Amino acid sequence: MIVTESEEQQELRSSVAALAQRYNYVDYVLPKSRRHEPLTELWSEAAKLGFLGVNLPEEYGGGGAGIYELALVQEELAAHGCGLLLVVVSPAICGTIISKYGTADQKQQWLPGLADGSKIIAFGITEADAGSNSHRIGTVAKRDGDDWVLSGNKVFISGVDQADAVLIVARTEDATSGKLRPALFIVPTETPGFVKTPMEMDIIEPDRQFALFLDDVRLPADALVGEPDAALAQLFAGLNPERILGAAMAVGMGRFALDAAVKYANERAVWKEPIGAHQASRTHWRSARSRSNSQS
Ligand SMILES: Cc1cc2nc3c(=O)[nH]c(=O)nc-3n(C[C@H](O)[C@H](O)[C@H](O)COP(=O)(O)OP(=O)(O)OC[C@H]3O[C@@H](n4cnc5c(N)ncnc54)[C@H](O)[C@@H]3O)c2cc1C
Predict the structure, then answer these.
(1) Residue located nearest, by CA, to atom 17 of ligand 1
(2) Which of 3, 38, 75, 154 is the most exposed place for a label (fewest CB within 10 A)?
(3) Burial call 90-101: b when 16+ CB within 10 Å, e when fewer
(4) Mean pLDDT in the chain?
């Protein structure tokens, strides 16, 4: 499919690229990644320029554009080696779900902060026994008067240390059928009974992943996002942007890797000429480069 970007989208691309060029991979991103320190300075600057809330509604301080524009932001950052994982989670998944299904109060409370990057909501769906299969989620939310009480475990949840809240995917019991169905809850990270433990990961990446333990976490009635009956639709309203943003990040990282490889092949000389001048590697890089250019 050939996509022709509007002038506005092209301008957005070059503005993001101009910002990303100032956050050098070798000097800034890599050392931070090795220490598992978030790219806070880049996050703040990108947020101030309106890049992180580009998909969120204008009435809450967002850019009023769509997921394409947010994906474009993520791709350009990643193409310069500084993709932001929490863009996938906070404005893409959580921002989309709250914009579409949140109550008026939830929108007012969270969207302006998500749009200007001053607030972060992490997203917690994965469990040890329910990775790809969201129908097996074991975190359960029970009614107690007006309150909800959540118990369960999550794994691999990104950026909980940076987040103000986590959008937790749990299940509630249908009063008539007794069947469990998914439901989404905004859980502030300071809520009693909410315990986060950093996980030891093998990837070199700025943001940390956490195991979560929800030990009878008591939440007010308004912690539930939208209607319990529409929960599956709400969930996919967030998971679809996640896929798109994840793909955009991967495309950007591919461009970054290819550019680095071409640069290396042009500089590295072990005989008389750079290795890229030899016929086999030259043909290989050229065709890979032209494939990448025609896709971006
Ligand atoms: C760096 C990182 C950050 C993460 N951040 C978050 C986060 O912020 N929030 C969150 O909720 N989760 C997060 N995750 C978890 C991630 O979403 C899960 O790893 C993912 O959902 C897959 O679950 P799993 O690892 O249990 O794999 P499994 O479900 O065990 O799947 C293993 C493999 O089998 C394949 N597979 C499974 N079932 C089928 C099937 N029926 N047919 C064909 N193939 C199948 C899968 O595609 C996959 O390739 C993160 C993971 C990582 C590594």
Answers:
(1) 126
(2) 3
(3) bbbbbbbbbbbb
(4) 92
